[in-house]
């Protein structure tokens, strides 16, 4: 009987098979990446849709949009309202009622514990964290309050120029100093020769109990669901939280509200909401929310977008560090070195996802006409952004402004 020897693959045949498989993988990878990006884009679009829908539900309940940053619905006293960003005020209509109620209850408890006579001195901002220390250990907490001022004036600290400047992407940061004292309604300082200083009293708290802070709501305290806050296509650093006061983590977000729409009279300090009636250009022609990078042009604590604190010092949309409203053009996936935190950023390339006032989500081309003339993707280091004042408004400006009297064409 003749036995035939088995013949295996030759080296050439093996190399040919490997080459074919490699070619197929190379052909499939772009399709796989495109499919993944399509899924991420759909998820990010869904988040924007949820925010826009939440605003409409909120408006039906309260006949107004949420406050951009400040109290709602009360006038700034514990137990009568919550303090924070527009996101805080939308929490009850975004299936986060338990977290919101915890925030509200903490305010009310502080009000009752301290007594009504002291509450006017306690500037609580509805932010919870855990005081570091061993459980059961007694810690001291300072409660600052404002000194008495002459009739017709109130104590506050105002920023005044001085101290030089530092260049950042597309703008300069002008250092300011704080001038604290009793300021009258006419903007003049009262009794400048004997300016009172803020005082405080101390209370004993257990070191493992929640205490007040000045920025944000700690993510661990309310268990923020991450899905609605984050866009997976963000090319900035991947952290979804930021460690800040009391060594506690705060939730970051990729989504930002258009300051021009939410802030009454486009004034940061107004702390008052406005209704859809202020959007005279029409809901379908006005941007409510846009996506952006979570971390952008980091300068100290600036450049991070905290979910529950729409502070002008951080990454915002339509307002700069000096409380000035703007319509600066968005950037198209800039590098970390070129990211400008006075703008928003397109996370998907080529188009910025936005939620319009009618609840629709659109992609706005990076080629859209605009009033601003500077190059947003490559801002001059140390320069100032071009606001383009005096030029005819472009489509981008009309979408940013709710009351400029003109419609926009999507490009």
Topology diagram in text:
Blueprint: H1 11-62, E1 69-73, E2 81-85, H2 86-90, H3 97-114, H4 116-119, E3 128-130, E4 138-145, E5 153-168, E6 171-184, E7 189-190, E8 199-206, E9 210-212, H5 219-222, E10 241-243, E11 249-251, E12 255-257, H6 259-262, E13 287-291, E14 295-299, E15 302-304, E16 331-332, E17 345-346, E18 351-356, E19 361-365, H7 395-400
Parallel strand pairs: 16-17
Antiparallel strand pairs: 1-2, 3-9, 4-8, 5-6, 6-7, 10-11, 12-13, 13-18, 14-15, 18-19
What does this structure look like?
- By secondary structure, the chain is of the alpha+beta class.
- The protein folds into two domains: 36-68 and 217-400, no CATH class; 125-206, no CATH class.
- It has seven helices and 19 strands.
- It has helices at 11-62, 86-90, 97-114, 116-119, 219-222, 259-262, 395-400, and strands at 69-73, 81-85, 128-130, 138-145, 153-168, 171-184, 189-190, 199-206, 210-212, 241-243, 249-251, 255-257, 287-291, 295-299, 302-304, 331-332, 345-346, 351-356, 361-365.
- The strands form eight sheets. Strands 12-13-18-19 form a four-stranded antiparallel β-sheet. It has a three-stranded antiparallel β-sheet with strand order 5-6-7, with no helix packed on it.
- The radius of gyration is 26 Å and the shape is globular.
- Residues 111-132 and 210-223 have low confidence and may be disordered.
């Amino acid at each position: 009987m003749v036995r035939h020897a088995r013949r295996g693959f030759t080296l050439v045949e093996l190399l040919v098979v490997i080459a074919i498989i490699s070619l197929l993988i190379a052909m499939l990878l772009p399709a796989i990446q495109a499919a993944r990006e399509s899924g991420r884009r759909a998820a990010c679009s869904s988040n924007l849709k949820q925010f826009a829908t939440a605003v409409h539900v909120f408006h039906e309940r309260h006949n107004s949009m949420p406050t951009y940053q400040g109290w709602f619905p009360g006038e700034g006293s514990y137990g009568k309202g919550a303090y924070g960003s527009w996101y805080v005020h939308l929490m009850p209509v975004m299936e986060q009622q338990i977290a919101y109620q915890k925030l509200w209850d903490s305010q009310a408890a502080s009000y009752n514990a301290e007594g009504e006579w002291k509450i006017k001195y306690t500037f609580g901002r509805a932010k919870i964290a855990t005081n570091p220390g061993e459980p059961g250990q007694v810690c001291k907490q300072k409660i600052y309050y404002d000194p008495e001022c002459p009739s017709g004036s109130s104590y506050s600290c105002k920023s005044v120029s001085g101290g030089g400047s530092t260049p950042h992407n597309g703008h300069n940061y002008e250092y300011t100093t704080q001038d604290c004292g009793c300021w009258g309604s006419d903007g003049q300082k009262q009794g400048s020769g004997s300016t009172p200083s803020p005082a405080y009293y101390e209370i004993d708290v257990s070191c493992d109990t929640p205490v007040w802070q000045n920025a944000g709501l700690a993510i661990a305290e309310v268990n923020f669901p991450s899905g609605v806050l984050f866009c997976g296509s963000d090319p900035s650093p991947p952290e979804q939280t930021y460690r800040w006061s009391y060594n506690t983590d705060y939730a970051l977000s990729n989504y930002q509200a258009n300051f021009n729409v939410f802030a009454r009279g486009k004034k940061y300090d107004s702390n008052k909401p406005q209704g859809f009636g202020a959007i005279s250009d029409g809901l379908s022609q006005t941007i409510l929310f846009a996506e952006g990078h979570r971390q952008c042009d980091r300068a100290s604590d600036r450049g991070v977008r905290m979910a529950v604190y729409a502070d002008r010092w951080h990454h915002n949309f339509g307002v700069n560090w000096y409380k000035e409203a703007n319509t600066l053009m968005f950037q198209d996936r800039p590098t970390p070195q070129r990211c400008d935190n006075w703008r928003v950023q397109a996370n998907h390339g080529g188009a910025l996802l936005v939620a319009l006032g009618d609840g629709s989500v659109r992609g706005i081309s990076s080629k859209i006409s605009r009033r601003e003339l500077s190059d947003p993707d490559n801002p001059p280091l140390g320069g100032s952004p071009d606001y383009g004042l005096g030029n005819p408004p472009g489509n981008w400006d009309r979408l940013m402004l709710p009351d400029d009297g003109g419609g926009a064409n999507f490009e």
